[in-house]
Specification:
CATH topology: N-utilizing Substance Protein B Homolog, Chain A
Number of strands: 0
CATH superfamily: NusB-like
Shape: globular
Largest sheet: none
Low-confidence stretches: 1-5
Strand content: under 5%
Number of domains: 1
Mean pLDDT: 92
Radius of gyration: 15 Å
Distance between the termini: 30 Å
Helix content: over 70%
CATH architecture: Orthogonal Bundle
Length: 149
């Protein structure tokens, strides 16, 4: 799949990731069970499968560390985050930290769009602020390079 063709598929993969992580929080499913379950969905056929299959297990495996980073970014206890907001932030912080191939602006924009689609009315504003702070920390060199160009 080409980069141009994978853009929509990558967005759809992130949408499935939000759903899987939301389900993990609410129902307590194991990651392997979620991967299997989402592979069986018709929507899986239209996503960037490689991205989804890499990201979901990676986020599950590093969830405690990702949550600790998120906890340092937010202005409330982690437990007070809406499950959708936490899911979006897990994906965003994972991408900022582990997917240097995805520009930080894309990570933030995708997070905002996911929050608009799945989250509370103004939740996208909170996601934008949190991911911006995360990007300042995790992608400072990339941000400085773009600022000086």
């Amino acid at each position: 799949m080409t980069n141009a063709g994978s853009t929509g598929a990558r967005t759809r993969a992130r949408e499935l990731l939000v759903q899987a992580l939301y389900q993990k929080q609410l129902a307590g499913h194991e990651c392997a069970e979620l991967v299997e379950q989402f592979h069986e969905q018709a929507a899986y056929d239209r996503v960037d499968k490689e991205f989804f299959d890499e990201a979901l297990p990676a986020i599950c495996a590093a969830q405690a560390e990702l949550e600790a980073k998120i906890d340092g970014l937010i202005d409330r206890p982690l437990e007070q985050l809406d499950p959708v907001e936490l899911s979006v932030l897990l994906i965003g912080v994972y991408e900022l930290e582990s997917r240097a191939d995805v520009p930080f602006r894309v990570v933030i924009n995708e997070g905002v769009n996911l929050a608009k689609r799945f989250g509370a009315l103004d939740g996208h504003k909170y996601i934008n602020a949190c991911l911006d702070v995360a990007a300042q920390s995790l992608r400072s060199a990339e941000i400085q390079a773009q600022g000086s160009g």
